[in-house]
Amino acid sequence: MMADVVESFLAALVIDKGLAFAQKFCEVCIFPKLLECSEGLNWLDAKSRLQYAVVHTCRVQRRPVEMPQYRLEDSEGPANRRTYTAAVLFRGKRLAVGTGRSVQEADMAAAEEALKNRSGHIVLPEALKKTKRET
Hints:
By secondary structure, this protein is α+β, with helices and mostly antiparallel strands. It is built from five helices and three strands, in the order H-H-H-E-E-E-H-H. Helix 1 (about 1-15) packs antiparallel against helix 2 and helix 3 (about 45-60) packs across helix 4 (about 105-115).
């Protein structure tokens, strides 16, 4: 949706002011912000950042790309206050465990923990080393 708005705005700018003006506008106003936004991949959630790191690891090691697997290990408590425990695995090795009030929260917590405690299984790409979050 936001991309449609930006595209429409830029198209109107080109029509009204010309291509050269629109290019300069992008160079001054849009590109620096995009770079700032994307630096460190802060806009990605923990599962996406872990997947990015895993794909990078596979490429660095020149091995086929394998995705992390999430496994629900436990759920405790009554249905309205249940706590879930999930593990994230890579190449059959357990990287981390996380807990949450939903399976999705538990998966996310496990991914965040895996990024913090890589223990040599994952090669972190430069883009993820620049995150403002603790990884």
